[in-house]
Amino acid sequence: MQMEAKQAGLTCLCAGWTRKDRAPGAPWAATLPVLLAALVLVLLASGAVLAVYYDPRHAFWSVQGIMRGVQGGWLMLGYHRVGAGLVFALLGLHLFRTLLVRGYRGAGAMSWMLWVTLLAVLLLTGWLGFVLQGGAGGHWALLNATRAAVMMSGFPGTVAMWFFGGPAGGDTLARLLVLHAVLALGAAGLICMASRAAKRAKPVPNGQVVAFWPVYASQYFAALAGLALVFSLLLGFAPHWGQGMQSVFAPTPLLVAVPVSYPWYLWPLARLAGLLPGVGGQVLAVMVLFVLLYALPWLDRSNGAPPRRLYKVLIWLLGLDILVLGVAGPMLAALCSAWVFFHFLVLTPLVTAMEAA
Amino acid sequence: MMRRFFAPLLAVGVLASGAARAEDTLSPLHFQSQGWSGTIDKAAAQRGFAVYEGVCASCHSLHGLHYRDLEGLGLTPAQVAGIAANVRLANGQPATLNSRFKTPGAISMGGATPPDLSNIVAQRPGGTRYVYDFLTGFGPPPAGVSLLPGHFYNAVFPGGQVSMPAVLRDNAVTYADGAKASTAQEAADVAEFLTWASDPNLSARHAVGLRAVLFFAFLTIVALLVKRRIWREEG
To answer: Which end of chain B is more exposed for a tag (fewer CB within 10 A), N or C?
Structure first.
């Protein structure tokens, strides 16, 4: 009796999985959420192994020890590093595409906001990972952040003090390690939630469904294979691409105050934060950016129809602007950062209102 | 590739001539570790370790390395144990396989301290070649350049003045494999050794990477074909 019930449950589950019907002819870009989920799984698995050997009190040399002394440790480091980079690349692509097809409007607003939250969570996780490596750059970044944090007064100051334990206190990295892992788990959860929300927002039109198996399974499989190919290329032949040299220097108290060189996925944000002076300004710039991203479904005054030419051009321009922002010098970076705000605050309402009219 | 192909022939040649001659890496200068499929030249790196141990170790630490790591250069555990046993650590005890490389006492020369060399190749752009150029870049200062006290002229060091003296000279060490220890050879060998020290998994990474890339390239093509076919039939 019980057996039967169990079996029925199982078939139900499998059927639910394989019979997940979708609209036919989904583009390759629709596989991005699944690819993101796969990468986050790789990051969680390799991160779990790294955490076993990691020593927050001798961060730099323990990472060196993983690279040199742990069986396969260099591979785990490679998985983690390359995986982290690709997560940002793919999430960037996904957000870009959502902008381009106006997927954030109406029913898509919920999943859009979840994806934006994922971006915020991953950026913080990535920053923490950079700090946890214990290289000179991460050390300086942490020192700057904690110094600023403990200067804050009132409740934020209390939280910062409680969290960091003073300016880069001895146990700070141990706490950040826990936060890093919790945020990574949160990111996995967010991907699930955002995908569900996206599916709910776009019900399959009646009568033209396609079975998951084998139609979509074959597409996902090909996309995953392609991702694995890119992953192996990076892992084997460019594992340190875009990491910045500061992460291979042990932190020394003698050398400080050169600008921190972040890994590439933090380049645009770091420059955008620099638009406003002071630490408070940096935090403000980032916060305003995310508020604008969250508010995008309402900043867009269109009626939700697919975007027209002008709006698409602007989105392409925005994508280009962010790429340039990542590598720009100070003057150009200020211009590119200003453009991001200008795009969301002024151009988006204006152009979309024109479309609606 | 060619080298691997001709290696057996070369070996026969060496046997016939009766003398083990080290491969010439100097004319033209090249490092087997360089390039997308590079691998560590273990023979050169072993000689480079002799240079490090004989010349550099009195000033520069190699904190990231343990003596056991030298097995990665093709030395046997017994050979490595012998090397370690000859090292007296700061506490007076001989080193063991599991000891970190001995750290020299604190040194300050001309206001600079000798940097740890564990990651030096990763810390300089074009690191392998830079180390070679740096070690062979010493010389008399060009006319018009006056050196700060305790500094030496070096053509590739930023600013041209470095507080490390020229330490390499012909026959600064004696190579176990009979290679001629010219200054350039010593510099090239220690550069290859330090390349390995900075990235001990370089050879394995390239081998694993190549296999993975070939496998997934094949898999991607097959998967794309399958997908196309299924979509044509079902969609």
So the answer is: N
